[in-house]
Amino acid sequence: MPAEGGDVLFRVAVDVGGTFTDCLVLEESTGEVLQFKAPTTPSDPSIGLMDALTKAATAYELTVEGFAAQIGLLIHGTTLATNTLIKKDGAKTGMVTTRDFADVIEIRRGYKNVRTSMY
């Protein structure tokens, strides 16, 4: 176990889902990967994220602050927006755009009418 304030770095990936928040931690010095899971709190997804990080910190005998200080890379993903669209239970939302930028959503997906065009 790394000491508080040590130079061991972690790579952490957190996925906040509709039911659970999953956390994977790679300890760079050993290559060991540990997995942690916490319930997602729909009203405040940050609670599940912090609970998962707290479990990880505890496993490494660190405080959350000490653990966070040793994270060299944090990857965050979520399916909350996708789940909201699928279940159709989110707030009514619209998109306002200026002329000539209505295709922003398609461009984000990599779609272009002329593939070689920058615009």
Question: What structural class do you assign from the helix and strand content?
Answer: alpha+beta
Unreliable spans are none
User: How many β-strand stretches?
Assistant: 4
- For the record, the CATH architecture of the domain at 10-87 stands as 2-Layer Sandwich
Give the CATH topology of the domain at 10-87.
Nucleotidyltransferase, domain 5
Please list the strands of the largest sheet in the order they lie side by side: 3-2-1-4
Q: Kindly, what is the distance between the CA atoms of the first and last residues, rounded to a whole number of angstroms? A: 51 Å
Relative helix content: 25-40%
- For the record, the CATH class of the domain at 10-87 is Alpha Beta
Strand percentage lies at 25-35%
Element-level helix/strand string? EEEHHEHH
CATH superfamily of the domain at 10-87: ATPase, nucleotide binding domain
Largest sheet: 4 strands, mixed
Shape: extended
C-alpha Rg (nearest Å) = 19 Å
Number of helical segments with 4 or more residues: 4
Average pLDDT score: 85
Give descriptors for this structure:
four-stranded mixed sheet; 119 residues; Nucleotidyltransferase, domain 5; alpha+beta; 29% helix; 4 strands
Secondary-structure map with pairings?
Blueprint: E1 10-16, E2 20-27, E3 33-39, H1 45-59, H2 64-69, E4 71-78, H3 80-87, H4 104-108
Parallel strand pairs: 1-4
Antiparallel strand pairs: 1-2, 2-3
Describe this structure in words.
The protein has 119 residues and is an alpha+beta fold. It has a domain at 10-87: ATPase, nucleotide binding domain (Nucleotidyltransferase, domain 5), CATH 3.30.420.40. Helix content is 29%, strand content 25%. The chain has 4 helices and 4 strands. It has helices at residues 45-59, 64-69, 80-87, 104-108; strands spanning 10-16, 20-27, 33-39, 71-78. It has a 4-stranded mixed beta sheet.
